[in-house]
C-alpha cells in the first residue's frame, strides 16, 4: 500500500486543507456556514442516489401515540410534554443504514429510529438510532464513512477493505464498532430493541433556563437479538422479516411500546464533565446522570400505503419546537442541514405538504411555488415579511435561547480524544459468552480484508480498549498485536 501524492480538492479544483474537522467558532462551535467544503460534501452526498434514500433506504413504519407520564416542565416548555396524560400522535420509521431498498432486514447494521411527533406547535422530529453513539463525531466525515459502507465503484460489491480501513483510521468509531459487532448488531425484531436520540440536545424551560438532554427509548418487549446463523438464513428466506413482524404484531393488536427516558445535565456541567458531552461517539454515565422517565410511546396503527407514508416520510433533526434546541454537537450541526436538504432533493421542496409530513399546527410562511405544491400556494395573501398588510409576523418569545460562543474560526477537532475507555468498559461488561461472540463476529468481518496493515491497525485499537480484547481478535486473525505506541 502506497500513499497518494494527489491533493484532495473541491469540485471546483481548490485544494482541501482539512478533511477531518469542520470549521467552527472555537472547539465546540457552532459550525460555520462559511465552511463551503463541508456544505459541498453534504449537499453533493445528498444527491448521489435517485430516488431512494442515500442511507436508511430500507425501512418499516407505523403510527401511534406518545403519552406523557411524568411532568418535566421544569426543564422544557415544549407543549407536547406539558402535562401528565397528554397524548400526541406520532409516526415512526425504523430502518437499516447501509443497504439498498431491497436489502435484507436481518443484516448486521445499526437501525434507524426516527420519530415524528405531530404537536400543536409544529412537528418535532427525533431522528436517532438503536445505539447511543455513532461511528464519527464530525459531519464532514459522514459522506466518506457512508461511502465505505456502500458498494465498490468498479466491482459493485461490498468492500471490507474500505470499511476497516476507514474505521482503523478513525479511532473515534471504536465504541460504535464494538456495539455493532456485539449481539446487539442484529436485533431479533424492530420491537425488541431500544432507541436513542444519540445526540445531545438542549431543553429550555419557560424561564429561559437551559439543560442538556439525551433521549432513551426503552423497549417494553425486552431486548432480543438474532443468532448470526439464523440471521443469515432469514436474509435468504425472508429478507423482509422485520418489516413483516412489525406489521403483523400491530395487525393482531399486539401493540409494541417503548418507555421514553432522558438524561439531564445542568448546562454548566458541560465544561467540566470527563467526556465532551457533545461528542456523539461517547455516552454519559447513568450513574452521573440517571434516567428520568418522560412518557410512553405506543404503536397501534399500520400504514395504509407503504409509499405514501413510509417511503415519503421525511425526518430532520432540525425540526424543533419551542423548548427543544440544538447543542454544539458537530455531527448534529451538520445533520441540521443535510437531512432537510436530502428531503428537498428526494421528495421535493414541498415535502412537508404531504399528508404523512403535514403538521397539525397551522402553517404560515412566505414559501411559494415549487414542484408538487398541493396547497392554495398562499392564494393572494401577503408573501413577504415585514409587511404593512397583516401578514404573518415573527414572535420574539419563540427565539432560541442565547448561548455564548468564543474562539478563533478554524477547522478544529474535539478537545477530548479518549476513544478507548468507554469501548473497553463495554467489553468488560459483557459476559464471557458475549465476548466470545463479539470476537468471533469481528474476526469473521475482518478476515476478508486483504491488507494486514489495516487489520493490525484495527487490532491496536481493540488492544488499547482492553488488552484481552485486542489479543483475542489478533489470535483469531493469526496476527500479532502491534507494539505499543
TrEMBL record:
<keyword id="KW-0575">Peroxidase</keyword>
<dbReference type="InterPro" id="IPR040333">
    <property type="entry name" value="Catalase_3"/>
</dbReference>
<dbReference type="InterPro" id="IPR020835">
    <property type="entry name" value="Catalase_sf"/>
</dbReference>
<keyword id="KW-0376">Hydrogen peroxide</keyword>
<dbReference type="InterPro" id="IPR024708">
    <property type="entry name" value="Catalase_AS"/>
</dbReference>
<dbReference type="Pfam" id="PF06628">
    <property type="entry name" value="Catalase-rel"/>
</dbReference>
<keyword id="KW-0479">Metal-binding</keyword>
<dbReference type="InterPro" id="IPR010582">
    <property type="entry name" value="Catalase_immune_responsive"/>
</dbReference>
<dbReference type="InterPro" id="IPR018028">
    <property type="entry name" value="Catalase"/>
</dbReference>
<comment type="similarity">
    <text>Belongs to the catalase family.</text>
</comment>
<feature type="region of interest" description="Disordered">
    <location>
        <begin position="1"/>
        <end position="29"/>
    </location>
</feature>
<feature type="region of interest" description="Disordered">
    <location>
        <begin position="366"/>
        <end position="404"/>
    </location>
</feature>
<dbReference type="InterPro" id="IPR024711">
    <property type="entry name" value="Catalase_clade1/3"/>
</dbReference>
<keyword id="KW-0408">Iron</keyword>
<protein>
    <recommendedName>
        <fullName>Catalase</fullName>
        <ecNumber>1.11.1.6</ecNumber>
    </recommendedName>
</protein>
<feature type="domain" description="Catalase core">
    <location>
        <begin position="9"/>
        <end position="393"/>
    </location>
</feature>
<feature type="compositionally biased region" description="Polar residues">
    <location>
        <begin position="366"/>
        <end position="376"/>
    </location>
</feature>
<dbReference type="Pfam" id="PF00199">
    <property type="entry name" value="Catalase"/>
</dbReference>
<dbReference type="InterPro" id="IPR002226">
    <property type="entry name" value="Catalase_haem_BS"/>
</dbReference>
<feature type="compositionally biased region" description="Polar residues">
    <location>
        <begin position="1"/>
        <end position="25"/>
    </location>
</feature>
<keyword id="KW-0560">Oxidoreductase</keyword>
<keyword id="KW-0349">Heme</keyword>
<dbReference type="InterPro" id="IPR011614">
    <property type="entry name" value="Catalase_core"/>
</dbReference>
<dbReference type="GO" id="GO:0004096">
    <property type="term" value="F:catalase activity"/>
</dbReference>
Amino acid at each position: 500500500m502506497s500513499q497518494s501524492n494527489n491533493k484532495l480538492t473541491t469540485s471546483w479544483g481548490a485544494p482541501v486543507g482539512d478533511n477531518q474537522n469542520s470549521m467552527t467558532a472555537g472547539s465546540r462551535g457552532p459550525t460555520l456556514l462559511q465552511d463551503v467544503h463541508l456544505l459541498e460534501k453534504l449537499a453533493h452526498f445528498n444527491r448521489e442516489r435517485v430516488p431512494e434514500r442515500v442511507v436508511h433506504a430500507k425501512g418499516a413504519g407505523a403510527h401511534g401515540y406518545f403519552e406523557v407520564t411524568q411532568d418535566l416542565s421544569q426543564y422544557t416548555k415544549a407543549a407536547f410534554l406539558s402535562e401528565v396524560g397528554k397524548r400526541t400522535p406520532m409516526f415512526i420509521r425504523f430502518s437499516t443504514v447501509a443497504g439498498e431498498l431491497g436489502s435484507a432486514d436481518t443484516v448486521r447494521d445499526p437501525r434507524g429510529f426516527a420519530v415524528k411527533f405531530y404537536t400543536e406547535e409544529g412537528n418535532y422530529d427525533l431522528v436517532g438510532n438503536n445505539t447511543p453513539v455513532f461511528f464519527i463525531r464530525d459531519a464532514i466525515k459522514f459522506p466518506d464513512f457512508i461511502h465505505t459502507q456502500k458498494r465498490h465503484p468498479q466491482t459493485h460489491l461490498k468492500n471490507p477493505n474500505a470499511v476497516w480501513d476507514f474505521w482503523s483510521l478513525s479511532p473515534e468509531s471504536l465504541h460504535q464498532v464494538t456495539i455493532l459487532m456485539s449481539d446487539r448488531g442484529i436485533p431479533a425484531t424492530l420491537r425488541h430493541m431500544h432507541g436513542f436520540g444519540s445526540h445531545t440536545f438542549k431543553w429550555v424551560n419557560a424561564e429561559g433556563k437551559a439543560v442538556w438532554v439525551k433521549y432513551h427509548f426503552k423497549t417494553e418487549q425486552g431486548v432480543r437479538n438474532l443468532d448470526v446463523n439464523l440471521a443469515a438464513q432469514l436474509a435468504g428466506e425472508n429478507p423482509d422479516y422485520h418489516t413483516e413482524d412489525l406489521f403483523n404484531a400491530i395487525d393482531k393488536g399486539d401493540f409494541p411500546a417503548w418507555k421514553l427516558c432522558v438524561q439531564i445535565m445542568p448546562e454548566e456541567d458541560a465544561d467540566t464533565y470527563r467526556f465532551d458531552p457533545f461528542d456523539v461517539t461517547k455516552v454519559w454515565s447513568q450513574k452521573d446522570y440517571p434516567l428520568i422517565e418522560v412518557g410512553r410511546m405506543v404503536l397501534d396503527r399500520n400504514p395504509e400505503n407503504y409509499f405514501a407514508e413510509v417511503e415519503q416520510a421525511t425526518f430532520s433533526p432540525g425540526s424543533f419546537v419551542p423548548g427543544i434546541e440544538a447543542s454544539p454537537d458537530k455531527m448534529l450541526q451538520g445533520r441540521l442541514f443535510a437531512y432537510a436538504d436530502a428531503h428537498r432533493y428526494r421528495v421535493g421542496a414541498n415535502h412537508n405538504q404531504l399528508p404523512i409530513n403535514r403538521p397539525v399546527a397551522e402553517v404560515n410562511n412566505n414559501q411559494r411555488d415549487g414542484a408538487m405544491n398541493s396547497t392554495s400556494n398562499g392564494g393572494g395573501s401577503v408573501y413577504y415579511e415585514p409587511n404593512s398588510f397583516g401578514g404573518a409576523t415573527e414572535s420574539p418569545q419563540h427565539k432560541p435561547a442565547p448561548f455564548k460562543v468564543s474562539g478563533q474560526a478554524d477547522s478544529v477537532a474535539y478537545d477530548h480524544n479518549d476513544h478507548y475507555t468507554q469501548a473497553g468498559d463495554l467489553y468488560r461488561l459483557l459476559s464471557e459468552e458475549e465476548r466470545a461472540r463479539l470476537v468471533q463476529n469481528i474476526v469473521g468481518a475482518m478476515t476478508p480484508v486483504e491488507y494486514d496493515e489495516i487489520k493490525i491497525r484495527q487490532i491496536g485499537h481493540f488492544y488499547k480498549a482492553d488488552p484481552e480484547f485486542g489479543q483475542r481478535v489478533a489470535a483469531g486473525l493469526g496476527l500479532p498485536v502491534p507494539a505499543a505506541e
